[in-house]
Amino acid sequence: MKARIDVMLRDGVLDPQGKAIHQALKHLGFDTVQEVRQGKVIEIELAESSHEQASARLKEMAEKLLANLVIENYRVTLQD
Q: What is the band of 80 on the pLDDT scale with cuts at 50, 70, 90?
């Protein structure tokens, strides 16, 4: 079973990489871009057959290692 975990900074947390990307896009002529938030995507393949067990394990992975829950949110998506 494949899964994807999207990790993004929480609203209100300073995102210097997002700001740098935003400025670079403006310099390249993309003036309609209003805001950029930068995050990360983690793809994982699990040897689980149960969606419930896979979701629970992925949540545990995200909360223990993949996301800093003080400043980041995460979303788990299972792919069949």
A: confident
